[in-house]
Amino acid sequence: MGYETAVQTAVFQRLNNHTALQDMVTNVYDSVPETATLPYVTIGEDVITEADTADTLGVEASITVHVWTDTASGTRGRKQAKTIQGVIYEALHRAELTAEGYSIFAADFVNSQSFKDVDGLSWHGVQTFNLLIDKR
Q1: Chain-wide mean pLDDT for the chain?
Q2: pLDDT the model gives residue 71
Q3: Which residues pair with 125 in a beta bridge?
Q4: Is 69 exposed, middle or buried (0-12, 13-18, 19+ CB in 10 A)?
């Protein structure tokens, strides 16, 4: 498993096993099936940057998490997206993440935004988290 896969796996496992998040969304996806129903979360893009030290091989990983909700009622839409983003923040910020063969030293929130998607029907929330990870 490479750094990219380790980061993806650690974030996916944390979100997929987070009870409060699972109570709010239909699923956490890497690849969204055509049959998916809103609201759901997707693990998005990542940027991996070398962060070796004199005695360790490591990277800093910046990864995005996407929230998708609809506008069907007053409890959905932007408010729902932001509420779900709050739970994701609680799940990932300063969390102890794991990935086989790697040590993850930090998981820190960077930023968050929400906006109406180009389809005009759904709200899209985007959050970025940074992870520091070394190969064991």
Answers
A1: 92
A2: 75
A3: 67, 114
A4: buried
Phi-psi region of 105 (alpha: psi -120 to 50; beta: other; left: phi over 0): alpha
First-residue to last-residue Cα distance in the chain: 12
What pLDDT, in 10s, does the model give residues 59-104?
A: 999 999 999 998 765 556 788 999 999 999 999 999 999 999 999 9
Unique residue bearing structure tokens 């699972």: 22
- Given a contact cutoff of 8 angstroms between Cβ atoms, the answer to whether 131 and 107 are in contact is yes
In order of their start, the domains of the chain are: 3-135 (3.30.2000.30)
- DSSP letters of 53-77? -SS--EEEEEEEEEEEEE-SSTTST
Place of tokens 């987070």: 18
